[in-house]
């Protein structure tokens, strides 16, 4: 299925791009993250499972494991934001 990916803040800087359109085999957001990590290099570092990464699916915050993907979905990855 084809989906839209968006990357923000330090993830965007690490990957050198703000987004991309991909054909993926993943059916959940968690599987998508694993598919991107498997690309290696900057993807593996920026999206590593040990890192705190927030995910939005079609502009709604989701947990990344079981959230189902559908054709044309927009998935955004970004680090948690703190302020004070």
TrEMBL record:
Keywords: Nucleotide-binding. Pfam families: ThiS. Gene3D superfamilies: 3.10.20.30. SUPFAM superfamilies: MoaD/ThiS. The keyword Membrane does not apply. Belongs to the MoaD family. This is Molybdopterin synthase sulfur carrier subunit. It comes from Hydrogenophaga atypica. The gene is moaD.
